[in-house]
User: What shape does this take?
Amino acid sequence: MPSMELQPSLDREAGMSRSRGKRGGWITFPFLKATLTGLMLAGWGWLRNLIVYLIEEFNVKSIDATQITNIVTGGINLLPIISAILADSFLGSFYVVAISSCFSLLGVVLLTLTASISSLRPPPCETGSSVCQAPSRVQFSVLYAAIALASTGHGAMRFTLATMGANQFNTQYQGGFFNWFFILYGACVVSTIGIVYFEHSISWGLGFGLCSAASFVGLAIFLLGTPFYRHDKPQ
Assistant: This one.
């Protein structure tokens, strides 16, 4: 009797093992690499220049702009904890990355609109004047909504993507994946210098537009890889 009871359990485990073997592996790495590149360029592209944008385009005092940026940065650093709980216990890594990437894209698109549409930001300060017009409530609302969406997506996605990527590989290959992942992560952070240059020296709209394009391409490639991913169920 005990052997008969154990047989269905062994069959289920064997079936799960075969199912896991059909997905994942190095075939998913190009999709994850492209996703990381696009979303990191987008995220760090707007975040690294946020203080300057608030001061120059929204007439925010430097001390207030610094406080806003510190709050945003702190929130981004805390969000991986929340996203890990959601991924492990409720949604799974794939859905957390997909949803947070959509948030990031919407936020960066809104930032692009604030930089491109003059009615969404206050008029520039007059030359030689120390008094500048403050943003209206609508302008502040759009700006804060954009920052909230972009920072939520950026914070929730970046390390959840690393976890999801590691789950695509068997244990012996996970170390190699993490090495490549964080090399690419650092390269993307350094590469945002070019986007920062476009934002500050050429056009804020163009710079944020590049961030939007990178975010869109990263999300699209991530979704294209869906048939190849290994989807681990929440525990």
User: Anything to note?
Assistant: Residues 37 and 184 are 7 Å apart (CA to CA). The helical segments are 2-21, 29-47, 50-58, 62-89, 93-116, 137-167, 171-202, 204-224. The radius of gyration is 22 Å. DSSP finds eight helices and no strands in the chain.
